[in-house]
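Schema walk-through. Below, the input block comes first and the output block second. Nothing else is stored per chain. Lengths vary across the set, and this one has 80 residues.
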Amino acid sequence: MERGTGIVRKYSREISRIENKLVQLEKGNIYELTGAKMDGSLPTNISKLRDEFHELLVKIETNSISDGERLREGMKKAHD
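--- output ---
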């Protein structure tokens, strides 16, 4: 996804997490197919994806601080 200067850029970390989860599902990385518990079951992955999507929508709606901004603030405080 192209990075813009607005919402997409501000919430790029959150969007990347959702995209990564979708890619993993697209590749069939679910417990039912791989047998690997780290992949999680299909219902668990869907639930996590839904939660991340709703969390992102709330952040956008309320213009909340993004994960990237929170990380930058934390790093700045650590260096001060």
